[in-house]
Amino acid sequence: MKRKRAFLLLLMVLTLVALGFGVADGSWLRHVPEKDHERKNPYAGQADAVAAGRLVYEDHCAKCHGENAEGTKKRPSLRSARVQQEATEGDLHWLLVNGNMGRGMPSWSKLGDPQIWQVISYVRSLTQ
Amino acid sequence: MQQNLFRLIDSRKARDLLFRIEEFATESQLVEDLLGTTSIAAPHIFREGRMVPAQGRIGQWRPWLRLVFVLLAASISFHAQERPYFVTYSHEMEEPGNLEIEMFSAIGKPPGGNRFLGSTTEFEYGATAWWTTEFYLDGQTTWHDSTIFAGYRWENRFRPLLREHRINPVIYIEFENTSADKALREVVGHDGRDDFLDTNADARADKQREIELKLILGSNFRGWNLSENFIAEKSLKNEPWEFGYALAASRPLKLAASSHKCAFCAEKFMAGVEMYGGLGDWHSFGTRLTSHYLGPTVNWSAPNGITLSFSPQFGLNDYSIPRLYRFGIQYEIEQVVNRFRRGE
What we know:
The complex is a heterodimer. Chain A is mostly helical. Chain A has helices spanning about 1-20, 35, 45-60, 60-65, 80-85, 90-100, 115-125. By secondary structure, chain B is of the alpha+beta class. Chain B has helices at about 1-35, 60-75, 200-205, and strands at about 45, 50-55, 100-110, 115-130, 130-140, 145-160, 170-180, 210-220, 225-235, 240-250, 270-280, 285, 290-300, 305-315, 325-335. In chain B, the strands form 2 sheets. A 12-stranded antiparallel beta barrel of chain B has the order 3-4-5-6-7-8-9-10-11-13-14-15. In chain B, helix 1 runs antiparallel to helix 2. Classes of the chains: A mainly alpha, B alpha+beta. Chains A and B meet through helix 1, helix 3 and helix 7 of A and loops of B.
């Protein structure tokens, strides 16, 4: 009986935690600190970085954002004006490092800075 | 048309892989005949009052092996970039919607005991970006003894801070129901080499139903990952809390990606070091009569979506098993739920 109660209590705590996180977060662009907003892509203008970024994109991003970054049912297009024009490359770097976990976008800090900048080079090359 | 072609290629890959496995199962008998001894691939089991070679059982599992590998190859998708850790957890969660199937094994031989192979098969699912849930099945083979199912575990990891910080905490909660487990997925309390000396029959009598809590701290800095785990485990029997730790660091051999597809580029390899051990229990906290292990670790992200890991680990005191050889294979299926939806 005690064990059952403990299990129910644990289940309730987990549910509350889940609900708490579920309602978190808003528009990610507003949260980017100024110094991150102004960061420059060290690979800007390098064709090799675009090619490498495409391979990284295919490995990690395409399943959610589409083979050509056109978006899928639940995940946004990366060809949108927000990604291509409103956000700076520094903003995109911040997003990839931090994710937008309340909305399903994981942190990609595990890729390391060079690969993150390469992906950004590729994404930004899509509408050029 | 193109999609159908890819499916055809995938199913051919699956058939090739399956035939190789079947050949291996047959060849393991040949190895035993040639060497005149029991090979690693041919442990014995206790059946109907006597020891019999276990490899004949592979035949019984052939239809299941066929099913599993066809499913894996048919759903071919990629690309785990996993840390090469066997005991330590990093703060990196499974990507939401992805299912990762992992098999980790440890081979060791305690002094005065029989060699063993402990394995876990894990199904790790990214429920959300901040919540990963995982189900384990444990098994082990002990030479000159038997091969047994050692139980199951269910764990959940929660990331309370939704942004990346210098140090990122993750809360880990696990329930385990195991007995005679030799996979060594954590070391706590006074776990030591003597625990591996009992026969499987005796060890199975001691059922362990436990709750395990971990505080996982992780940092990514300039390509390096540093992870620290603090472990507290409580048996549901009237036994004291046991404590342990695990530490690890790793880095890819190269940080930037290559601009062409390659199997053996430096960025496909990750190397590091891992250390873990027990810290006693509630009544005797500390390192007295506890076991500790240290070893280098490496993994390779293969081009077909499989990650292979290996680590030789060394016991740091007389209470530890002198050497452990750990190896793992991981395979990630991206967006697994969407695969069952129409039109995707």
